[in-house]
Amino acid sequence: MRLSRSVAVFILFFTAGSGTTVYENEFTEEDTTPQLDYTNPYWCHPPGLTNGEVTCHSPRGRAYRSTLGTRCQMSCDRGYRLLGRRSVMCLANRRWSGTAYCRKMRCHVLPLIYHGRYTCTQGFMVDSRCDFTCDTGYRIEGEPSRICQHRGSWSGVQPVCSDTDPPKIKCPPSRLKVAEPGKLTAKVTWDPPTATDTAHKSLDVILVGQEPGTDFKEGLHIIRYKVYDQARNRAACKFIVRVEVRRCPELFPPLHGYLSCSSNGNNYGATCEYHCEGGYERRGVSSRVCQFNRSWGGDPAECVPIEIKADVKTAPALLDQFYEKRRLLIVSAPNMSDPDYQLQNIMIQKADCGLALRHVTVIELLGSPPRETGRIKESLLQPQVIEGLRQAFRISRSYFSMVLLDELGLDRERFISPVGSDELFSYIDSFLLDEEEREKLELRSDFCD
């Protein structure tokens, strides 16, 4: 399309010499449409791209970077993103077909990590490196650093801080404890350990073994403690509790006697009592105790044949020899030919061993004055002693009778007819023996077989 307009043209004429100036005013119509010029190397303004590069190709050759029809490719430097047209062309209106510019690229903000932190060399710009570190007690899992890449994305994946440091626990020292006196155990106490952890403050300590403050048996006991943190990291410790029972040398029973010992027999604090068989009595201490220094207190006792002095002058003098030691069975009859006496005498002779085990001594009172006799086995009693016994315990000379006295000299039972050994022993065992004596008697039940 052609365009025309009126243009005023002023022509000045200068006349030499006269100084006269002539003006002519004339209007003409002229076509102002620019002519396409493919040879003009600067048809469009020279292209430029800050923080980028422009690569142009002209139909006329390399020298014509801005000539009409030239096409230019836009690219940005590393770390910049192209905004606008990637390719522009120089148009007939002396303008490029589009615009572009390079904007600096950034990576997104990295999230924080639990129990850790990170520091970056250039913030979140391209080529910035962010290094990750963990709090004390935690260890990095994954890559310890990430780099902001030229496309605006981070390298790798986000690491995590994991608790891999186990807790710390220290057990008390091992200990030796001597068993308590008379026992085979010892009460052992200690302060339970506490555990520490760099990551967690509250930890539960678990005991594996016997509780402190309880009785421990003789021997070695391994006590363990273990603890877990919230990440299930485990720590453990152990120590030994040793209980020692101090023992004395074996204590041997006396000849014609036996021992009854408490606890385990020869451990510290154990008490051993001396007992003598029937017909024998103890001479010396009644018991000995195992001491801390592993020795027995006192000297050993012995069992000696019972020596009863029958030639004493009074009944009390005779009875004092039995007081708190033995029981008495007084047998009385009008004469030796009394059938009840003879029957009873036979049964007593057969029961002599059983009576001895029950610490029973038999006194026989026979006849009437002046032929009255009294005896303990073959030892004869004085007449005044016989009379004293009859009066003290109201024993008649007229008929057969038996009086059973306990260890304190008390009249416990009277028999007016002969009794067998089973009946007599049953009464003694049930009413005159204490529990300990019955246990000892049961252990020696076959002694008389």
How are the strands of the largest sheet arranged? 29-28-27-26-30-31
CATH 2nd-level architecture of the largest domain: 3-Layer(aba) Sandwich
What is the gyration radius calculated from CA atoms? Answer: 64 Å
Class inferred from helices and paired strands: mainly beta
CATH superfamily of the largest domain: Glutaredoxin
Task: Tell me what portion of residues adopts beta-strand conformation.
Answer: 25-35%
In round numbers, the mean pLDDT is: 87
Choose one word for the global shape: rod-shaped
Q: Give the CATH topology of the largest domain.
A: Glutaredoxin
Main beta sheet: 6 strands, mixed
Number of strands: 31
CATH class of the largest domain: Alpha Beta
How far the N terminus sits from the C terminus, by CA atoms, comes to 158 Å
Main location: other
Domain HYR: 162-245
GO cellular component, one term: synapse
Keywords: Angiogenesis, Cell adhesion, Cytoplasm, Disulfide bond, Repeat, Secreted, Signal, Sushi, Synapse
Write structural notes for this entry.
The termini are far apart. Helix content is 12%, strand content 35%. By secondary structure, it is mainly beta. The protein is built from six helices and 31 strands. The chain folds into five domains: 52-104, Complement Module, domain 1, CATH 2.10.70; 116-162, Complement Module, domain 1 (Ribbon), CATH 2.10.70.10; 177-244; 257-305, Complement Module, domain 1 (Ribbon); 315-443, Glutaredoxin. The model is unreliable at 1-30 (pLDDT under 50). The protein has helices at 315-319, 339-350, 352-357, 383-393, 421-431, 435-443, and strands at 6-14, 21-29, 52-57, 71-76, 80-84, 87-89, 100-104, 116-120, 129-134, 139-141, 145-147, 160-162, 168-169, 175-178, 185-188, 195-196, 204-208, 214-217, 219-228, 234-244, 257-261, 271-276, 280-283, 287-289, 302-305, 327-333, 360-366, 373-376, 379-380, 401-405, 411-415.
